[in-house]
Amino acid sequence: MTSGWLAPDLTMSAADYRELVGAALAFKRRYPQHTELVLRGRTIYFLFYNASLRTRSSFQTGLLRMGGHPITLDPQNGIYTPALPEAEVPYSTERVADVARVLSAYGDAIAIRMYGDPAGWVYGGAHRHLEAFRQWASVPVINMEFDRFHPCQALADIMTLREQLGGLTGCRLCISWAYSGSWHKPVAVPQSLLLAAVKSGMDVTLAHPPAFALDPDVMRAAKQFAAHTGASLRVTHDFRDGVADAHAVYAKSWCSLAHLPARIGEPVDEAAMRAAFEAHRDWRVDQSVMRQAAPSAGYLHCLPADRGQEVTDDVIDGPQSWVFQQAANRLHAQNAVMAHLLNPGCLA
């Protein structure tokens, strides 16, 4: 079995992560003229259980431009749905162990995106699916977002922060929950970003209403990384306090882990979830909020943004927005991930 891009959030050291960020930025400067053959002849199978614009298009464009071959398999309709043993349905599903070994025999990597409904919204359920692919595959397995982590998004985020702020040690980042009319968003983005930011030496303020706390295991890991790098981590339940004097404001919505089911087949407590959201409709980034941040602060969001709810148009489309640079960096971050896994020498 081989290594993959599953959860570098927890397993990659701060020093190794900073080195990867630097290599990704250098790789971006060489793209596309000097990277066009680095994955020549390599094939990656892409399985999307959820909708995707940036992840799908950036991965596949990047692989094609580097000489590789992306093949998309629809796990809901186009193939027998890969399933864990307890979720098998005769002639409708196929055990993950079998799918992973077959695809490993054909190609060079497997990339998967899965969270929410396909895993019954049980926190960690989708990640178990990813780990099963990792256990049985003999090629790298890439996490394109699961319910716990979104490492490719975090890498693009840190690249953007580096480009905008230079060295990140001591820079202040606010990671904040924001209101949305939909609760159907996992905690993967804030959790990966939090870990990446403290590994990068940033002073992080995590702002959220009490019902929207992140995974305690992730919080413990973030504090350990922060102690190692000299970063700081502060939690507040006051939105404007979180934004105050920040050099960068990353505000987006995520679900409440407290109201997700404990087991497959149990329902989400939607009434409690919606009540938690509706009680905090004022957690929205507008110009008055951005004025609480440092004078040259930037606004970030992983997209898609719920405009008018998470953020106003004049912020996301305005001069303080780093959102579309951030989206563009998804291509370059994932090129670096694919190269790191399939041809690491080309990053040197």
Mind explaining what this structure looks like?
This protein is an alpha/beta fold and 348 residues long. It has two domains: 14-149 and 330-342, Rossmann fold, CATH 3.40.50.1370; 153-327, 3-Layer(aba) Sandwich (Rossmann fold). The protein contains 13 helices and eleven strands. The protein has helices at 8-11, 14-30, 54-65, 96-106, 125-136, 151-165, 188-199, 216-229, 239-243, 270-278, 287-290, 313-316, 323-342, and strands at 43-48, 69-73, 81-83, 93-95, 109-113, 141-143, 172-177, 203-207, 232-236, 248-252, 298-300. The strands form three sheets. It has a five-stranded parallel sheet. Strands 2-1-5-6 form a four-stranded parallel sheet, sandwiched between helices. Helix 7 links the parallel strand 7 (172-177) and strand 8 (203-207). It is globular. It starts with 7 loop residues before the first helix and ends in a 6-residue tail after the last helix. This is Ornithine carbamoyltransferase. InterPro entries: Asp/Orn_carbamoyltranf_P-bd (IPR006132), Asp/Orn_carbamoylTrfase (IPR006130), Asp/Orn_carbamoylTrfase_sf (IPR036901), Asp_carbamoyltransf_Asp/Orn-bd (IPR006131). Belongs to the aspartate/ornithine carbamoyltransferase superfamily. Its EC number is 2.1.3.3.
